[in-house]
Write a structure and sequence with these properties.
By secondary structure, the chain is α/β, with parallel strands linked by helices.
Length: 369
């Protein structure tokens, strides 16, 4: 990326000097305006160099998501520079059109400089765009279009100067105005796109819906909700909640989430990472257990209400399920404790647990020692 910006800077420096010098010598306001455009391209090449150097640094403690948005911020600055450049050219051209005595009379040498500029900038466009696609860089793509816009503006200069040489002196000034409008359009488009990234604009709704459909096809996934995305440099980061079986083990739930994460990354070339949150129920609509007590308090309460039924140490084998606003209890007991009154024990435990309004279903499971 830095090599691309250096090549572009050298070419644009030569073009800037040539256009301004020969614009003055050849008396072409349009070519001078085009020279300012090349100067703006030179400044963007320098921005690309600095952005490429710093935006590709690895993540650190202060920037855990990396430095990719340095490139985005530079793109906004680049767009602002182009817009201001366009405004300056418009004001100057308008003043010349309102004061015909200030109109310049271009000479034929301007045509040669414009033709050279067209070839040079079109070559830069293809070179820069090839590297931009290779590294998926929005900033390089923007810079490539700057080169093409410079080539297009040189075409406009060519036509305007040719018209002026044929006896239409206003065409040179109008050509400068056309160049300014193109510069302003490119600047606004790139600045606005980058601003949308800085405020975390997500994927297009159709793309987000397609990702949900992919997730729903994965084994073990019972529902998908709260899918969010944001752009970071040239890639997207995804957050999503998936619903799995409510009594699944933690390790199996984690396995499913990792599979979903890798599937999302493989499904879209611009998704670099995904954070998958596991839910036992759809927490976007179901009653949450945010007010339910944590494990220590639950076990303390169960020891109290079950004091005359089971030994306190047996509660260390309790599995808790926080579902639909209740805490459901699975009590695991040794097979050595099984007796003919197991069903009655379960009924008594369930009945006594009702003294705790946050307790839901109570199950007693038996295992071999």
């Amino acid at each position: 990326m830095r090599t691309t910006s250096v090549v572009g800077a050298i070419v644009n420096l030569v073009l800037t000097i040539a256009k301004v010098v020969f614009g003055v010598i050849g008396q072409s306001h349009a070519l001078i305006a085009d020279g300012v455009h090349s100067l703006a391209d030179l400044s963007t090449d320098l921005m690309v160099w600095f952005a490429a150097k710093y935006s590709n640094q690895p993540a650190d403690k202060e920037h855990p998501y990396g430095h990719a948005r340095i490139e985005t911020a530079f793109t906004v600055g680049l767009g602002v520079v182009l817009i201001l450049t366009a405004i300056g050219i418009v004001v100057d051209s308008a003043q010349r059109l309102l004061n015909p005595e200030t109109l310049l009379q271009p000479t034929s040498i301007v045509l040669w400089i414009a033709a050279i500029s067209i070839l040079a900038n079109e070559g830069l466009y293809h070179y820069t765009m090839r590297v931009a696609r290779q590294f998926n860089s929005g900033l390089l793509k923007a810079n490539a279009w700057h080169h093409r816009s410079d080539a297009i503006s040189s075409v406009v200069v060519l036509l305007g100067v040719a018209g002026s040489l044929m006896g239409l002196p206003y065409l040179d000034a109008f050509a400068a105005l056309a160049v300014a409008l193109m510069i302003g359009h490119v600047g606004w488009t790139q600045a606005w796109t980058s601003i949308r990234e800085l405020v975390d604009t997500g994927l297009e709704p159709k793309t987000a819906s397609a990702l949900k459909r992919i997730i729903k096809t994965i084994e073990g996934v019972q529902g998908v909700h709260m899918l969010r995305s944001r752009r970071m440099g040239g890639v997207y980061l995804i957050d999503v909640h998936i619903v799995v079986d409510e009594r699944l083990s933690v390790s199996e739930g984690h396995k499913i989430s990792e599979y979903v994460r890798l599937k999302l990354i493989d499904s879209h070339e611009y998704i670099s990472d995904a954070l998958v949150h596991i839910d036992a129920e759809d927490d976007s609509v179901a009653a949450l257990c945010t007010d339910s007590p944590m494990r220590r308090e639950v076990l303390t309460d169960l020891r109290r209400v079950w004091a005359d039924q089971i030994e306190a140490e047996e509660l260390e084998q309790v599995t808790l399920h926080y579902l639909n606003g209740k805490v459901h209890v699975d009590l695991v007991r040794s097979m050595q404790t099984v007796d003919a009154n197991a069903q009655q024990l379960i009924e008594r435990l369930q009945e006594q647990a009702q003294a705790l309004d946050y307790i839901g279903e109570v199950k007693v499971l038996y295992r071999y020692p």
